[in-house]
Amino acid sequence: MNRMRRRAFLACPAAALARPAESWADRLGILCQLGGTEQTARAALAAAREAGFRRVQVNFPWTKVEAQYLKGLPSWLRSEQLRCDVLSAYVNCLQPGTILMNTRAEDFARALDYAGEVGASRLVAWTGSHSADLMKIEPRNAAGGAEDAIIRFLEPHFRKIESAGLRLALETYVTLACPDAPSLRRMLDRLPASIGAVLDPPNLTPPARYAERDSVLREMFRTLRGRIVLVHMKDFRLAADGKSYSLPGPLMGEMNYPLFVEQVRGLPADVPIVAEHLDPKQFTEARQKLLAL
How far is CA 50 from CA 82, 183, 287, in A? Predict the structure, then answer.
């Protein structure tokens, strides 16, 4: 079975049933910030392996890496016996010319072709913003036409996403377009099933509803059910201004993690679960605490 056919098979429900069940220890992954050099990439991957992780999401600056870096990454993953579930390609879908995280429109197209090289089943992109500052409140992001602009950018890639056996996970934040579960679901209902959501409670909880964050968390799982293709695990606290968040790693803020994990356990077994916002020195402790839940 060639790589494309194998990946398409693994994405289907029959394959999910055929695979043996995995333990939570095996399913829990970590987001590795690889940097733009072989040295930094291999150090991050080694830290993940040493902490006990076997699955990763990899993030690197597409605008800065050379062809040799992309050629080497699959072997660096293999040398650490890591499975790359998720490839970051954080293009700004709303306004691709405004770069949010070192990813241009042409890099997103490159990532679609490259995902198979690292074995990723998920690709991640931002819903997007009119601002180059990811954390800046930008009123235009909530204006009419934002969803249409995102769909226009993605539409030419629909066929490639599906034929490659990928699921595109759209990630948002409270400052971006589609900043909560209802608005994200409204747009997803206009998109093919191969495009879904990143379930990340801090990103989807309006600051005005922070005091009722447990209720919001339950709502977002209900609202996005059936379209959740990736889970991110970090934490949050309301900032002093009441309009923004600090975003530490998992179990380092004020989120109800037992409730979060309870909701995550109800998701299909093929949805990657990725801890993030962690320095490599924190990998081991964070993994132990998450598995203890």
Answer: 11, 40, 11
